Amino acid sequence: MPGSCHDFYFSNLNAIPRDAYGIKLIVGAELNIADYVGSTDLPAQILKKLDYAIASLHDPCIESGTVEENTAAIIGAMKNPHVVIIGHPDNPKYPVDFDKIARAANENHVLLEVNNNSYKPTGYRIGSRENAKLMLAACQKYNTAVIMNSDAHIDLAVGDHRFSQEVIAENNFPEKLIVNTDTEKFFEYLNYRKNLR
C-alpha cells in the first residue's frame, strides 16, 4: 500500500514476545492482491516468518476487473501457502462469483472474512451487507469457514464485531463455521493451515 511499512518492518516482527500482557500474541500482515493471478506484495521469505496473512483487493493497488478477473485474483491468492484469510471478499467495488470463491476457500482451507468495518452504516464499502448474504449462503453450501474481523483502523475499534454479528445473525449463519468464536478453535485452524505449507 502506498505510504505503508517497508519489508524491514515485517522482518523485525520476531522481536515481539509471543506471550505478553497475559495473552498469546501472533503476528501477521494484510497483503495486497496485486494482479488477476493472485500475486501479493510481500515476498515468501518474509511471509514464512509470519503466523498468518490476509490477502485483499484494495483500490490503490489494483483496479477492479471483471467478475471473472476479480474472482481469479482472489482464488489465485488462496493458493499462496501463507494466505490464511481473504479480506472483505464481499466488497462491491470488486464484484466476484461467490460460489466459486466459497468452493475454492473450502478446497484451499482458507477463511473468508466477515469484515465489521465493511458493514458500518458510515463505512465506505456500501453494498457489502447485501453481498454478505450471497457470500454466506455460498459458504453454507460448501461448508466454508469464515472469520469475523473488526478491521480496526484505530485501537478503539479492536475487537468490535457488532456489525459482523448482525450480519451473521441476519443470515442465520451457523456458529460451527465461524472459527474465532473460541480461541482454541482458531488456533487449531491456524496450526492445521500452517502444517499444509
Briefly, what is this?
It is built from seven helices and seven strands.
Protein described:
The strands form 2 sheets. The protein has a 5-stranded parallel β-sheet with strand order 3-4-5-6-7. A two-stranded antiparallel ribbon has the order 1-2. The chain is 35% helix and 14% strand. The protein starts with 6 loop residues before the first helix and ends with a helix. The chain has 197 residues and is α/β, with parallel strands linked by helices. The mean pLDDT is 92. Helix 4 crosses helix 5.
Which helices and strands, and how do they pair?
Blueprint: H1 7-11, E1 19-20, E2 23-24, E3 28-32, H2 44-47, E4 52-56, H3 67-78, E5 83-86, H4 98-108, E6 111-115, H5 128-142, E7 146-149, H6 162-170, H7 183-195
Parallel strand pairs: 3-4, 4-5, 5-6, 6-7
Antiparallel strand pairs: 1-2
Helix pairs in contact: 3-4, 4-5
Please count the beta strands (DSSP E, at least 2 residues each): 7
Largest sheet: number of strands, sense, barrel closure: 5 strands, parallel
Shape type: globular
User: Which consecutive residue ranges, at least 5 long each, have pLDDT under 50?
Assistant: none
The overall average pLDDT, rounded, is: 92
- Compute the number of helices: 7
Spatial separation of the terminal alpha carbons:
26 Å
State the share of residues found in helices, binned by percent. 25-40%
Helix and strand content put the structural class at alpha/beta
User: What is the helix/strand order?
Assistant: HEEEHEHEHEHEHH
